[in-house]
Every structure is written in C-alpha cells, then in structure tokens.
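Below is a filled-in request sheet from our internal design queue. Each sheet records the structural input a requester submitted and the sequence that came back. We keep these sheets so that new team members can see what a complete request looks like end to end.

REQUESTER: design group, bay 2
PRIORITY: normal
MODE: inverse folding
CHAIN LENGTH: 162
BACKBONE (tokenized):
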C-alpha cells in the first residue's frame, strides 16, 4: 500500500457534511434519514463548548474522525480544579485502516489533552480496539477488573514549577 499523506485538523462548521457522512457510514444505518444532517448540525452546535472533533484527510478525501469530550470536575476544598477528557467517536473508513490514520487521530487528541492540562484521558473501547488504544498509551486500571473495560491514559506529570 502506498503511504498516505495525512493531515489531521479540528473540524469546523464547514465540515458538518463530512461528519454526518462518516457517522452514517460508521453506524451502518441503512434507512435513509433526510433529517440526519440537520440533527447532526444541531448536536454539533450544542456540544461545541465541551467537545472537539478532528478529521483526518488526505487531500480532499476525508479518511476518519475522532472526538474528545471535556469533563470538568466539581471543585474540592484544598485541591486544584481539574479536567479530564473522554475519547469518543474514533472512526476510520475501512479502506484506510491499518495505515496509521487512527494513530494520527489519537495523537492529535492526546496532544490537545496535554496542552489543555487534562489529568487523564479515558476511553471505553470495543474488544477489537483495545490493542489500538494500548498502543496509544492507554492502560487498564486495576479498579475496572470486574466492571466495563475502561482504558486510561494518564496526563503529563505536574511540573515542579506548577
């Protein structure tokens, strides 16, 4: 397979059609839904203050997407406020899988999480995607042994100055 020139960037308002198409392809919904694009646009607008979605592109070709939802912890006395991220909606079109596209998407949202100072990233993977996330630095916390699998990628260590 020829290497792909992949660019990953945050999705904006002009990308709503691409996001709608990727989501419909991912879910495999066969029934036409003439209202889906409008509902996606309304959802995107309502989520914009806490969710970032990235697109992976090669030229004008959209290859995949990944999302990051920000959660802000309720303040606690004597502790600094903190935030963490939930990885969501990671999807790459089947014909572009195993070519580094997903890894580039995961790298982009991991870098954004580090820049934002998130305490951690969490993902609830499918059985098939556990290896992908582990390769990206996610671990299975001991506390989830008997519960639904959650993988955690710890945030950067606090600096001595901070």
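RETURNED SEQUENCE:
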């Amino acid at each position: 397979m020829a290497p792909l020139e992949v660019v990953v960037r945050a999705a904006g308002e002009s990308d709503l059609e691409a996001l709608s198409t990727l989501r419909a392809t991912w879910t495999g919904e066969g029934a036409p839904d003439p209202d889906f694009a409008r509902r996606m646009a309304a959802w995107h607008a309502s989520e914009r203050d806490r969710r970032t979605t990235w697109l992976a592109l090669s030229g004008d070709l959209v290859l995949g997407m990944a999302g990051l939802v920000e959660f802000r912890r309720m303040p606690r006395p004597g502790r600094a406020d903190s935030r963490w991220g939930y990885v969501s909606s990671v999807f790459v079109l089947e014909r572009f899988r195993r070519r580094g596209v997903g890894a580039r998407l995961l790298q982009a949202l991991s870098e954004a999480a580090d820049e934002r100072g998130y305490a951690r990233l969490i993902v609830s993977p499918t059985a098939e995607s556990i290896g992908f996330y582990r390769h990206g630095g996610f671990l299975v916390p001991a506390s989830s042994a008997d519960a639904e699998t959650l993988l955690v990628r710890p945030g950067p260590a606090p600096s001595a100055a901070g």
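SHEET NOTES:
- The beta strands are 7-10, 51-58, 61-72, 83-92, 120-123, 151-154.
- Residues 120 and 154 are 4 Å apart (CA to CA).
FILED BY: M.R.
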